[in-house]
Amino acid sequence: MLNMIKSSGRIITLYFNEITKSGKISFWRIKWKNTSKALIMAGETLIAILVIGLFVTINTLFGRFSKNINKQLEASNISVKNAVFMGYEGRVNILVTEVASIINYAKKIK
After folding, report:
1. In this structure, are strands 2-8 and 25-33 parallel, antiparallel, or unpaired?
2. Does residue 12 contact residue 32 with C-beta atoms inside 8 Å?
3. Which residues contact 2 (CB under 8 A, 6 or more apart)?
4. Residues in the chain, pLDDT under 70
């Protein structure tokens, strides 16, 4: 049971007394020094957690964006490389020098 609260400046003291099972009265007290500093520290911790969460969210969003851009660039790059070979598709009269240049180009882009 809370018995008394005393406040002097920045120190708050709570006095408790309690009756144990054996019938004895135990008496104890809690002193809180600089409670305002403790509340400010708790607030700073919560703000830090929010900032870290915001950073993680932004990092994830930019990661997804860059992943999509890289996929689009890769698909575009593949279609540009395939365009060289598509020029020879369906042709019957391909020269030996053209075949050699296609082979060299394929080795080069590998």
Report:
1. unpaired
2. yes
3. 14, 15, 16
4. 1-35, 110
